[in-house]
Amino acid sequence: MARTFPDVTLVRTGAVFYAAAARSASEQELHRIGIISTLGIALLMLWVFRSPRFLLLGFLSTGIGIVFALAATMLVFGKLHLLTLVFGASLIGEAVDYSIQYFVGHLGAQGQDARRSAREVRPALLVALATSLLGYAILVGVPFPALRQIACFAIAGIGAAFLSVASLLPALLTNAQRQPYRTYDRAARWLGRWQAALTRRGAWVCLALIAAAAVPGWLRLTSDDDIHLLIQRDPDLARQEAFVREAIGVENSTQFFVVKGDSTEQVLQRAETLQHKLELPIAGASLKGVQSVTQFVPSAHQQAEDRARLSKRVSADPQALRATLTDAGFRPEIAAKYVTAFETPPSDPLTVDAWLAMPWSQPYRHLWLGQVSSAGAPRMFAAIVIPTGVTSAQLPALAALADATPGIRFVDKPASVARLFATYRIDSGWWLAGALSLILMLFCVRYGVAAGVRVTLPVVCAVGITFAVYGYAGIPLNLFHWLALMLVLGVGANYAVFLREGCARQRADIGGVWVGVLLSASTTLLSFGLLGKSGMPVLRSFGMTLALGIVIAVALAPLGMPTVRHRPS
């Protein structure tokens, strides 16, 4: 088109273009961050394990989990939500933890058979798996497809990753490795000093003071589910939209009225009534304008009234009308034809179907929805009326106007999406509370009440301190903060479990377990902490929350260890 019409500039506007641009930008960032995080994880694993075999086996386990998760989700739901794709990628950070703990356990076994090492770490992995599955199982019962799909994706992926670590990796890891004594010894000594500091009486007083200081932050917490805060508009598309709006005076409004009726005539009459009301001041201010199909096709009743009014006030004296048209610049024969045509009674009024068949109706055909299905009324017709220049202060008045008029409904698409996100956010909060309760009960059954509380405390502190930080910083919570806290719960609880189970399994190996925990936290931060630097507000919310929660959870994980002092090997 540019070559054929060099003087023509093509501009575009519409929600579909913004959605495509946002999806493309998010995918590019995810790919870029994914490459950086994958390289970082690979370098970390090579540095710790000194062998590419462990790196490949770790990625193999994670890949199996993701493939199984995708297959199960597509089998059950038939499609994949974008939320599931973003949140489900957490399997990279969670599933790789299982293989890391197996590798450090095998390295610390001093020449032990790989299958025996798998049997020794299996209890810790089973507790971690049960923790994750219990939390995600709650989401299966919620009435929202996106959260149910996340649960299906996570359960299938984490379960497959665990099975691959427990059964497949021991068969592939046949050669025994020697334990890196110095690294593990240094880690064990550092862990011992840090645990001693955390379990002193003064440390518990500090934790109590932190909890007390967090309360005002919790009281300051707010939420904001406005969809506009979660997206970043493409500047080029915004410029094109402004050009289109200025050129033709048509807004790409996301607020509009849906007018329904039993017949085309009823829809047109209701739209005319609504248009007359919208021409009056709304909430103390006038709208810029209204787009309605009745501006092009009045109702038959209105057409008859208009003709009668013209006949009475304009066409009562044909000679005077002909002279007026001639003085206005019309040729005499054209003026005569106009007067003759007006004096001839029309057979039928202008109809919507006739208007739609005209080529100049194309830019405004979206105003007529035609016949639509409706519960209890199979034959319904509908049109939309778009007010332009609407301010946020006028939205309640417009909604009240629709409620007071039969057959008319006001649609505010950003508000409806915000309400949906608010519902998801509230349900996510209940999920988080329920999952924490189930995890606490599981740990109490496994370790006893006192020890179970200590093992749960790190992830509880991670969630609570994160909330307090956001409250003091004045950052309103949205759905993606809660999704990140779900991941903090699933991953952060495992750190304390691995340390507790490592103490029960073999105290001489606790340095290796701690190295594995630190490596797991580093891989998670590389996988998702980098999202905090994203230019997309959605990904930035997710990444910032996850990074803060994971750092707190791993720092406090030694609280769940037994208080009995042991010497490292």
Automatic annotation (TrEMBL):
Highest taxon of the lineage: Bacteria
UniProt subcellular location: Cell membrane
Gene Ontology CC annotation, any one: plasma membrane
Membrane transport protein MMPL domain segment(s): 13-194, 438-557
Main location: membrane
Keywords: Cell membrane, Membrane, Transmembrane, Transmembrane helix
Record InterPro entries: MMPL_dom (IPR004869), Mycobact_MmpL (IPR050545)
Pfam families xref list: MMPL
Recorded topology in the membrane: Multi-pass membrane protein
Residue ranges of the TM segments: 30-49, 56-77, 83-104, 124-144, 150-173, 202-219, 429-448, 455-473, 479-499, 511-532, 538-559
Name of the molecule in the record: Membrane transport protein MMPL domain-containing protein
Biological classification of the source: Bacteria, Pseudomonadati, Pseudomonadota, Betaproteobacteria, Burkholderiales
